[in-house]
Amino acid sequence: MAVGDYHLPYASTPFEGPEKLLEIWFAPSPAHVPDAHAPKNGRKGLRNVPKQVWEDMLDIVKCKVLSVIEGEETDAYLLSESSLFVFPHRIILKTCGTTLNLLGLPRILEIAQNFASLPSVYRCFYSRKSFMFPERQLGPHREWKDEVSFLDAIFPNGAAYTVGKVNGDHWLLYLTTPGQTGANGETAPSSPDAFPLPPLQSETEEENEINQTLQNIGPETPVTQDYTIEILMSNLSPKAREPFFMAPPVEDAPSETPSVIGRTLSSAIGISDLFPPHLTTLDAYAFTPCGYSSNALLKWGDGVENGHDGEGYYTIHVTPEAGWSYASFECNVPLSTSASSSANDIPDLHTLIRRVVDIFQPGRLSLTLFISNVDNSNAEDDEGETAVEAAQRTFKSALTAHRPVSRSSGDSVTSRGDKQSDRMLYRRTDKINYQFGGYNLAFASFEFR
């Protein structure tokens, strides 16, 4: 969508749908932020940063806040160009078009230090799919090597990777690991237990209590597994693209807001039913004349039925114009590779992939699963299969074989190929597994048969 505007460009102007994804961790977990045990109004760490401060940072990036939903653990900002997620200990900035994502990084580091007493970076990740129109990008985003140089100037020991075919669809990743020199000349730890705590320089009784509490954080402090699944889709079918074009307003007729239209559209095409609605808080926006974005906060975990065990997110962004149609789905809720037991459950990975693909009907798609190794038991299933191999098996079975897909009882996607015989089937064109410091990656690409 146009820089600084709330609307997608008209069809005569190519638009870069594939997003730039920047994720910065300032601590291993929410328990390691300075005010972890003394939250203000239930908020701690980066979530105490005023909204206006984030909006000023986004002015540098060249995008605007459209709306925000505040969860128990996460703030989800819907942007004119994609999304911003703020957690106590980390931030995720995802922007499309010709936004200047990386130019926001220095300001984010300043905000973390000045507003949340988080002076060093624990981990940094930057990734994106190969651009459709690289010549239209600005600043350091013109070429991958320029993006890497920009990040290297801040993180001296980062590592850059290209995953997939250089002359086809591929995925680019830059990451730092704990134990390397941080952005402010400090050294990040090799394990969460060694994370440097703020010095005891408090002048007030309240601040001293916070720091004394932090000193008690030890090996027993849990660090949950980090999990991100992305489904990046292009060449969407005409049938799938059609709902994302808005009808011209009727003169003198009452008009609905873009948020209301977005929620109605989400329900009509099945986005609202990707996850059980009773576990989902959805924020959606329909752009004029075309386009769509949504953020959702999800309750998940063993304690969901008895009161909420965890909070995750998913985000969807759609550019429907012919010639550069694109849709992305991203989610950080860990999904099982075993079948879910009921429609009220969080879907398994196979079901989720199929639901997303049935809605957008892409001609080509890439899937990435980026998962941390909290411990060895989380990296393998009961049969000794690694998590990434289990994911690759699920990617293939979801996209290359006829197989029924269960849907929640309220699912309304009856007109989008809900019958098994109508499902689009694909052939796999790439399968790549990577091991990084503390993370595993499963990457696969598929084309319509």
Distance between the termini: 31 Å
> What is the overall silhouette?
globular
Low-confidence stretches: 1-11, 181-219, 303-308, 375-382, 404-421
Oligomer: single chain
The biggest sheet amounts to: 8 strands, antiparallel
Provide the residue-averaged pLDDT. Answer: 83
Radius of gyration: 21 Å
Beta-strand share of residues = 25-35%
Give the helix proportion (percent range): 10-25%
> Helical stretch count?
9
Number of strands: 16
Main-sheet strand order equals 2-3-4-5-1-6-8-7
Estimated structural class: alpha+beta
Describe the 3D structure.
A hairpin with a 5-residue loop joins β7 and β8 (170-175). It is globular, with a radius of gyration of 21 Å. Helix content is 20%, strand content 27%. It has helices at residues 51-61, 105-116, 144-152, 205-215, 238-241, 258-269, 349-360, 376-379, 387-400; strands spanning 20-25, 65-70, 75-79, 82-86, 90-95, 123-129, 159-164, 170-175, 227-236, 280-286, 292-300, 310-319, 326-331, 362-372, 426-435, 439-448. By secondary structure, the chain is an alpha+beta fold. It starts with 19 loop residues before the first strand and ends with a strand. It has an 8-stranded antiparallel beta sheet, with helices on one face. An 8-stranded antiparallel beta sheet has the order 10-11-12-13-9-14-16-15. α7 crosses α9 (387-400). Mean pLDDT is 83; it is low at 1-11, 181-219, 303-308, 375-382 and 404-421. The chain has 9 helices and 16 strands.
